[in-house]
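re: that chain from earlier
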Amino acid sequence: VFARALAISSYPQLDRRWARSTLFAMPHYPAEIEYSEKYSDATYEYRHVFLTKPAVKEVWKLTGGAQRTLAEAEWRGLGVEQSRGWVHYVVHRPEHHILLFRRPLGTDPMTGRAPQAPGV
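^ sequence. v structure.
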């Protein structure tokens, strides 16, 4: 919040009402669950899932206020549809309507099994 307030005060030529409405905007709840493109680093592939408002309310009931990650049965119960192997790995508190998922690179999408490490 401080960084956003600093951003507003750094640009006095901005209309403050516009800046506040843009910088402090309410979350966008899609009409249907939306999925980001996948992206990866050297270890995992990632994706974000944007929940509908009713699904977010259900997450709050399941977790006592978005206090923990969801088990696979829980996020599938919300209507999230993905291939196997995805794990909800972190609660992103500023945007609790976005679920963050990851799985090891090379995971078989049919079985959800991650590739074995060499020598195992």
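The helical segments are 2-9, 16-23, 53-63, 72-77.
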